[in-house]
Amino acid sequence: MGKCQVSDPNSFADPDSYDFSIVHYTDTQYLSEGAVEQEAPEERAVWEKAYGDISRWIVANKDKRKIAYVTHTGDIIENNIRKPADEATQKQVVGEMEVSSRQQRILDDAGIPNGVIAGNHDNQSGTENGPDALYNQYYGFDRYQSLSRGWKHTGYGGPWRAGDNQNHYDLFSAGGQDFVVVGLSYGVTREEAEWADSIFKRFPDRNGILLSHDYLAPSGNPDGRGAPFSAPDGSMLYKTVVQDNPNVFLILAGHEHGVGTTM
What is the 3-state secondary structure (H, E, C) of 137-199? Predict the structure, then answer.
């Protein structure tokens, strides 16, 4: 963020060219899955290390790269895309969540402000909601409320409903600017979108960042421009949240394979 030009792929290598940075990553599902399903312990360790190396890179570079905030936009795991059919699948799902939580906790232990939302592979395609959702057992309100006490220049705003952190918001300041980050997990309802809209309207003087698991589909153009909205959430989020909130300047998402921008 700052003087860095998007068209220059080498700009991020020079921390003097920007005031601060935000880390965004997504869809770690195959790393979580491999760390549980591989037969040999040595094989499982390779997959879990790959996940952990993301977190360790962030920790190692947080000062040099001026990292102010980190977000994961869902598909933390692979196999909770539908209700587990048997005990073995349930055990696999829980194991994947434990892997992801353990590797995300590397950021927590380093005091790095971060937020995680659920993708379709984390919340049974948007049908596993509420405080009892598996996501909330690992990435719930209590985790981030506790962590935020040690965060610098960042506050955990809270969940959209008591006990359900699948939709939540954070506030942070960096580079002399104030930001509000609103995260909406996969399968956004109209009520959830209206809640996000209300948060951006509550903080009109803060730069708004929207986190969604799905937003744009890949573009058919070589430069990635003219991308269509991804289903089911993209178009509705644009119309309900983005269009009428001029402070929303950045939308981060995952889900789709490919490149797309509306710029």
Answer: HHHCHHHHHHHHCCCCCEEEEEEEECCEEEEEEEEEEECCEEEEEEEECCCCCHHHHHHHHHH
Residue located via tokens 């601060």: 20
Q: Are 207 and 180 in contact (CB under 8 A)?
A: yes
Cis peptide before 232 (omega within 30 of 0): yes
CA distance 12 to 8: 8
3-state SS, residue 87: helix
Q: Residues 77, 31: contact at Cβ < 8 Å?
A: no
Look at residues 73, 168, 167, 183 and name the one whose alpha carbon lies nearest to residue 120: 73
β-partners of residue 69 are 22
CA 200, CA 192: separation in Å to the nearest integer?
A: 13
Encode pLDDT of 137-189 as tens digits: 999 999 999 999 999 999 999 999 999 999 999 999 999 999 999 999 999 99
Q: Could you tell me the pTM of the whole model? A: 0.93
| CA neighbours closer than 13 Å in the CB half-sphere of residue 29 | 19
